[in-house]
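Example record for the data management plan.
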Amino acid sequence: MTKTKDFLSVSDFSVEEINALFKRTEELKKNRFQDSFKNKAVGLIFQKPSLRTRVSFQVGVWQLGGQCMSLSPAEVNIGVRETIKDAALTLSRYLDLIVARVFKHKEVEELAQFSLVPVINGLSDLHHPCQALADVFTLKEKRGDLKGLTLTYVGDGNNVAHSLMQITSMLGINMKIGCPKGFTPDKNILALTQAQGQKTGASIVVTQDPKEAVKDTDVIYTDVWASMGQEREAAKRAKIFKKYQVDKGLMSLAKKNVLIMHCLPAHRGLEIADDVMDSPNSVVFDEAENRLHVQKAIMLKLLGK
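Corresponding structural encoding:
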């Protein structure tokens, strides 16, 4: 098989490809079991612990009729036990597709550079593209037409925020980001997405005022304040981000039918209050389910199915 492309960030797909992917996702959600991956093998290289990413990919491959194996750092400690190049070239002889969940984005880029089979970024420090596609697919399910909607992200300007900035700017969704000084999104990604938004009519705005960020918004999205690898900063960050908690007070400033989103795992009582997480407005677990269906569509696309 000749590799056509990898999926390392949302921008690896065009708007047309994303829309086609969403249509395929709808079909896969209705008809979950297929044999499209018969005699296909997928490997998961995970430097970080995972619940949703690992299980959703494993179940997805199984539902498509393929074989999936999870490889921990004990088996494939890329860049340590052997070079990323050697691991990529070796795994390419066994597998049809590789999913990598890494600490540094440059590692998944190097893996894709040398892999002879498609590579999917299951999460890196810079991007979380599978999550963003599942999020916007969920938003499309709930709201239909996406263009002109406003999504507000409250919290740390991290990998999830970056991927959301990419997809919203591509699809004409306005995005507001409320985060403390020093925790804003990557400047290069911000500049690129703002430029993209000018073409689609989508604005990308960053503010330090969480109340201003959520005012009259259609969606409030949040994530943990300290990601994996930042555990030592958790206590310090909790103080800095205190006023950025998505609680009923903050939620009341948005539209009445505002959707509440979180990529999970959630630290209830920190970035999000229990009564908001469990409110009728919450679509958090719909997002989690849709990871399964969106990722199946991504895998099928990369393998030309």
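Summary line stored alongside the record: The radius of gyration is 19 Å.
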